[in-house]
Amino acid sequence: MQNTSNIDFSDETFYKIRDLIYQLTGIFYNEQKKYLIETRLSKRLTDLNLTNYEDYFYLLKYSAKQSDEIKELFNSITTNETSFFRDIPQLKVFEDNVLREILEKIKIKEQSANYSKKIRIWSAGCSTGEEPFTLAIIIMEHLSEIPAGFSFEIIGSDISENVLSSARKGIYNSYTLRNTDLKLIEKYFDKIDNEQFQVKSNIKNMVSFYNINLIHSDSIKKLGNFDIIFCRNVIIYFNNDSKKVVISNLYDALKNSAYLFLGHSESLHFISSSFKLVGFGKTPLYIKE
Ligand SMILES: C[S@@+](CC[C@H](N)C(=O)[O-])C[C@H]1O[C@@H](n2cnc3c(N)ncnc32)[C@H](O)[C@@H]1O
To answer: Which GO terms are recorded in the biological process aspect for this UniProt protein (predicted)?
Structure first.
């Protein structure tokens, strides 16, 4: 087995791979990230027994195995950090303001035949599933307030097959549950051992997972329209051009007056003026106008 740290990774090849990643995902790596790409891809080169990055670029771009290798590329180059109950102030805004408002609306419109009986939520860029399952737990805590005949559907999506397959299993370690109330862990998880917990089937059944690339409007259109989209800590990896594409796709996927949550360090400044920005303390929320 070769030592990949000795494999030559010229600037020219870095730019080719970097530009291909950008074209395929919207994720943009500047020159300072060359080492990060090298670190993330080196294991893949070793597994493939490749002796240089130029051959890897060729495999991605021109070979018959191109589409399989692109899936592997997405598994290798994405940053998948997440956890249950990540950014509690935002989740409080979801629970105390957005969810409450929706529950009030559906109580009033209960009699209207035209009002959709399914409230649809999308966790776009959900990684290993902690975000959509957190939302399912919060909703489940309000089950008694949901009028008969109404239901919540939650979709989680990502471009990495590895994280999606982990999300579908729903098994988590204690570290990712570090911000989760013990009572909620006892109520919504089965303990496998001291380290591993599996989400109970009532929560698991509320969420479906799909492989969706956020820069592809066609696959997003197939998902239909949503009342709430969470796209947190995803566009942080994009440049302004790909942010504009993704946000426009999310805009089209939202119903009128529906809500968009971004990560706490993300904003729509210079990206889109099509949303109304509402502030709850330090927590911004975007509403489709
Ligand atoms: C840092 S995680 C955020 C997870 C979760 N939303 C949270 O805030 O905890 C970012 C996720 O976005 C996904 N992602 C990156 N580019 C994407 C794209 N073009 N389409 C879909 N998902 C993408 C990555 O695979 C990764 O799992």
So the answer is: methylation
